[in-house]
Design a protein that fits this description.
It is a single chain. By secondary structure, the chain is an alpha/beta fold. About 50% of the residues lie in helices and about 10% in strands. It has three domains: about 50-255, Rossmann fold; about 265-345, Tyrosyl-Transfer RNA Synthetase; about 350-415, RNA-binding S4 domain (Structural Genomics Hypothetical 15.5 Kd Protein In mrcA-pckA Intergenic Region, Chain A), CATH 3.10.290. The strands form two sheets. The protein has a six-stranded mixed β-sheet, sandwiched between helices. A hairpin with a 4-residue loop joins strand 10 and strand 11. Helix 1 (about 5-40) packs antiparallel against helix 2, helix 11 (about 200-210) packs across helix 12 (about 220-235) and helix 13 (about 270-275) packs antiparallel against helix 16 (about 310-325).
């Protein structure tokens, strides 16, 4: 090869290199943009201040992410797991999570959304409740990228002059703008003075930790915004806020410990599987988005109603049990549930929690007396079903344990257990 030809080849490669580098850069930028989009949208109701947080993520800034949870009960449920899962996605990009156990604030109890004052817990009760909190949270969070803190570290040490100094940084008008406080006062319901301190104390946690971002469910918006206000009063950059969506409980209301409508992270696999299978079809998509890592593109293709919804629900139940107990126990729970359901239906016994919507239509579908909801409605409206010996005409009729339902000319009877 002559010198001129070699020089030409080197020049060609040199000219091509910027193009290859540019393509790689654009690919990585697109990949990063997609990851940021997922961080700020999947399961997220609102971000404050979105442009600011988006830019920090784009620039690759290492962030301190705070999520606080008060141990007012002994179990963390999959509703709590929604912000924890959001935290984990941030951790996977290299950010540090701070799991804050509100052992001090739990003694007051968050008043948000409460019509009445919570009973105050003792330090001993809080300690007992919090005993396994970190163990449960680490089912989701990356332990190596998580700091565990307790807000008694600083709140327990505060003296009255310190409390007054913090209270002076927040206006009364701000505190009374809280929906819960305002509604209780307007309706004449009791409002304990100690409850007014709760948002301030929770806000001080962000000051003590110098949080960059705080995560919480949508009902925590006021408390997290108070964190921003107090940080500004201390001359700190206000934390950005990521508010996650609610997960609906097994009874159709927002999931919560006080309503006993939750699925605990440490629930037995079979019980967890059964609770998912008992949920109404209308919440399936939300559960895929909020409680699993199944890609949105995959669950967008699934069927959410009709006979095929049962297969979708079984897949969801498997994924949720797998998340907290592993694949073998998830498969075992599915087999046990199938065997139990088949055996009980064949014997004329149907568990209330296995009936979609707990109504007559759900019973006819799950017991295979109808192929679809529309067919079940038609059978009922044509007088083909009796409830406790009386003809049932309302296909929305809710069932209870002990009910006896007779279907069709063969008088096939099912007892609800």
């Amino acid at each position: 090869m002559n010198v001129d030809r070699s020089a030409a080849l080197v020049t060609d490669v040199y000219i091509a290199m910027p193009s290859i580098a540019e393509k790689w850069y654009n690919f990585k930028r697109m990949q990063t943009a997609e990851r940021i989009n997922e961080l700020l949208n999947r399961g997220v109701a609102e971000v404050i201040d979105r442009p600011h947080l988006q830019e920090r993520l784009r620039l690759g800034k290492q962030l301190r992410l705070k999520y606080g949870i008060d141990p007012t009960g002994q179990q963390i449920h999959i509703g709590h797991a929604v912000p924890l899962r959001a935290l984990r996605r941030f951790q996977d990009l290299g950010h540090t999570a701070i799991l804050l156990i509100g052992d001090f604030t739990a003694r007051i109890g968050d008043p948000s959304g409460r019509d009445i004052t919570r009973p105050q817990l003792t330090a001993a009760q809080v300690k007992q409740n919090a005993r396994t909190y970190t163990q449960q949270a680490f089912k989701i969070l990356d332990k190596k990228r998580t700091e565990v803190r307790w807000n008694s570290e600083w709140l327990q040490k505060m003296k009255l002059p310190d409390v007054l100094a913090e209270a002076a940084r927040i206006s009364a008008s701000w505190v009374y703008s809280h929906d819960t406080f305002r509604q209780r006062l307007q309706s004449g319901r009791a409002l304990g003075f100690h409850e007014l301190f709760y948002p301030m104390l929770q806000a001080y946690d962000s000051v003590a930790l110098k949080a960059d971002v705080e995560f919480g469910a949508l009902d925590q918006k006021f408390n997290l915004l108070t964190g921003r206000e107090l940080m500004k009063a201390h001359g700190l950059a206000p934390q950005d806020v990521v508010l996650t969506r609610y997960l609906i409980g097994t009874d159709g209301q927002k999931m919560g410990k006080s309503l006993n409508n939750f699925i605990a992270l440490e629930e037995e696999p079979f019980e967890m599987f059964g609770k998912v299978m008992s949920m109404p079809d209308t919440v399936l998509r939300d559960y895929f988005e909020l409680a699993t890592d199944v890609p949105v593109a995959d669950f967008d293709k699934m069927k959410w109603s009709g006979a095929e919804a049962r297969n979708t629900k079984m897949f969801l139940a498997r994924k949720i049990v797998e998340e907290y107990h592993g694949v073998p126990k998830s498969n075992a729970a599915m087999r046990k549930w199938e065997d139990f359901s088949k055996g009980s239906v064949d014997a004329g016994r149907v568990r209330l929690q296995d009936i979609p919507n707990s109504d007559l239509v759900g019973l006819l579908v799950v017991s295979k007396q109808a192929k679809s909801k529309s067919e079940a409605q038609r059978i009922i409206q044509q007088g083909g079903v009796k409830l406790n010996g009386l003809q049932a005409m309302n296909w929305k009729e809710k069932l209870s344990s002990g009910d006896a339902v007779t279907v069709g000319k063969k008088n096939r009877t099912f007892t609800i257990v």
